[in-house]
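Technical note accompanying the year-one report. For the benefit of new consortium partners, we illustrate the data format agreed upon in the data management plan: each record pairs a sequence with a structure-token string. No post-processing was applied to the example shown here.
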Amino acid sequence: MDNKRALTAHLSMFFACAFWGLMAPLGKDAMTHGITGIDLVTFRVCGAAVLFWLTSFFVRREHVPGKDIAMFFFAALLGLVLNQCCYTIGLSITSPINASIVTTSMPIFAMILSALILKEPITGKKATGVLMGCSGALILILTSAAAVNSRVGDIRGDLLCLFAQFSFALYLSLFSPLIKRYSVFTINKWMFTFATFMVLPFSFGSVTAIDFAAVHVKTWIETGYVVFVATYLSYILTMIGQHTLRPTVVSIYNYVQPLVSVLVSVITGLGVFLPAHAVAVVLVFSGVWLVTKSRSRADGEKRQ
């Protein structure tokens, strides 16, 4: 791997995760000034569908059999609709700090599902990591249950954000062979298209009821950031990083997201960082690190 290619990959992953980290406070602010969680989800999936279809006309075209197109429908249900609806609505209820910390738990869910679906072995290191990660999540939930306002957290929002991570981990476990066959542009143009058709029937009334003229320009800029930067651009940057870096290296960048979110949330007053949050961060981060460092079945077979 040449140095220039490696640097590009590292910078791509860093900025993708930083952009996602910034999405939590910006999205939260937008949802408190004129638009709802389901509105933001609708703008995100519809906007990304348009952007990925436009881009697909300028990149190498891939033939997708009808069977795989049908599979993209179910992949979109788990990887986009349930994931983004639960996360965005959860973010609208809880604090951006809690939502961003919870997002780092996805590798833990992926490990559990890999053990159940792909029969990956559960090592002592993985089990310890899961226990630590779950303990961190439990601390967040208990802190939210005792909170008096959403700047500290809300148990309903925390649980929705947790389910969003479970949904995405299940999507990766079930559809990993499918998503490895195609480019990020092919995958996302189909998945976001299906997501649009699934979300619009439920959200159309809410979106059309928005008093567009009354919504501040700042809110539209924040919404545009979520659609263009935190979705379209970040997905492309992630692809660039994943094509060059090892999965364990990519997973390390998950920690950038909550760091950016916590910093911006505290500065802007959208969230309050308590000692309990610090303990939860240490437990979740350590748990994810142990899970991602533990060898998979494939790694074990290579060593034999």
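Partners are asked to follow this layout when depositing records. The chain has 13 helices and no strands.
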